[in-house]
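Before relying on records like the one below, remember that each one covers exactly one chain. Contacts with other chains, cofactors or solvent are not represented anywhere in the record.
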Amino acid sequence: MKDFFIKIKIADRTYSLKIKPEDEEILRQAAKAIENKLKLRQEQMRINDKQDLLAMVAFDAEVEKLKEQKANEHINKSIDTINDQLNNMLDEF
């Protein structure tokens, strides 16, 4: 299928994006999630400045991403340790 344009609204601004049809749902969900996070931050911090709200939402997203990366690294290390133990057991067998 051919790429097409959609309009996404974030922080009272509309953006035209050229997308692949299979990406439309996830992009719309992302825009909606950002809008929800902006609204939540606005209520929590009582800030109306869109730039400040966008900065805080971007900051929150980066912190969340870094936490997930750290958790994944821990999981990967655990998997590597288990694999090493299993390989050692197999070698002994």
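Residues 4-92 form one domain.
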